[in-house]
Specification:
Order of helices and strands: EHEHEHHEHEEHEEEHEEHEEHHH
Radius of gyration: 19 Å
Number of strands: 13
Strand order of the largest sheet: 2-1-3-4-5-10
Distance between the termini: 52 Å
Shape: globular
């Protein structure tokens, strides 16, 4: 059931991190609203810089803020750069949230991640599972930073009465994803692998790990729609999960992506690579009760994502040395 409504019409809405996958999707979604969308590039303001962030927010005075800025990456990136994933994300969210409070922002939505939950949390994972067990070691640095962001929003709410809320999306994919051969998330990595195997005429494709872990996948434009919905209709301290309520094994995902890409070869598993969390399915009943659910079927979303990848192939090849 929809509750209190925050109006976007006529407001200045800052999308922090507008060049990331989620931020870009938010920018697309907000074009449907009668609001002024504020953005700032990293070359203009490094959100890790407290003074620069505060000065920019004080100058532009946003009414509403989506905190989607973050350093993100897959298992390999998290393992290789744990200090960056912890410290950069702590700095970014601390500065954005504090600057928003100091500028008197009406409402802020902080974008967390499903990796905040314990590695062996009961499935599907309810929001109440937060901080009830050990984290997944392969992304704990990023998770700790995101947990701190949730608590920061709750602290400002408790001490200052700030209407700052948190949303926890499941694994995302779609236009604007990062297709780096080592640092990407699973959907983008598999799209790239399947495409390159097809182009090279190869009869096999190597998957990291056993392929048995189960994951849930949400199209990024659906995530953006959910974030706008929560900005309008949710005002509580507790975080809200965003997902589809269904999951699949990594092997099943790989087969679906192979079909979309047109790769007809076999799969081999590199068991020297980590699997990560055995299963991560979010309980999305809270969001569904509020009146929102995802609209994009997985295959449809993957087709859009693959077209986006193909449109970007020259730039990707130049950036990452693909041949």
């Amino acid at each position: 059931m929809i509750g209190t409504q925050t109006k976007l019409a006529g407001k200045k809405v800052w999308v922090a991190g507008h060049r990331g996958m989620v931020g870009a999707a938010l920018w697309r979604r907000l074009r449907e609203e009668d609001c002024e969308v504020l953005t700032v590039s990293r070359s203009e303001v490094d959100l890790r810089d407290s003074d620069a962030t505060t000065k920019w927010v004080q100058r532009h005075k946003p009414d509403l803020v989506f905190c989607a800025a973050a350093k993100v990456g897959g298992i390999h990136a998290n393992n290789e750069m744990p200090a960056d994933f912890l410290c950069d994300n702590l700095r970014i969210q601390l500065n954005v949230i504090d600057a928003s409070h100091r500028a008197g922002v009406e409402k802020l939505v902080f974008l967390g991640s499903s990796c905040i939950y314990p590695r062996l949390a009961e499935q599907p994972i309810q929001e109440s599972a937060l901080m009830t067990g050990p984290l997944e070691p392969t992304n704990q640095w990023y998770a700790v930073a995101k947990i701190a962001g949730i608590l920061q929003c709750q602290a400002y709410r408790q001490q200052h009465g700030s209407n700052f809320i948190s949303a926890m999306p499941t694994n995302l994919y779609g236009p604007g994803d990062n297709y780096h051969p080592l640092n990407s998330h699973v959907v983008a990595a598999l799209i790239r692998k399947a495409h390159e195997a097809k182009i090279r005429g190869e009869d096999r494709m190597v998957l990291w790990g056993s392929g048995k872990p189960k994951r849930e996948f949400l199209f990024v434009d659906d995530c953006a729609d959910a974030l706008v919905f929560l900005m309008k209709h949710y005002d509580q301290a507790n975080p809200v999960n965003i997902g589809v309520g269904e999951d699949m094994t990594i092997a099943e995902l790989a087969r679906t992506i192979a079909t979309v890409v047109g790769f007809g070869g076999r799969f081999e598993h590199d068991l020297t690579k980590p699997d990560g969390t055995p299963r991560k399915l979010l309980d999305v009943s809270r969001l569904r009760t509020l009146g929102w659910q995802a609209a994009t079927p997985l295959k449809t979303g993957l087709e859009i994502a693959y077209r986006d990848f193909c449109d970007r192939i020259p730039a990707e090849a130049e950036a990452y040395g693909a041949r």
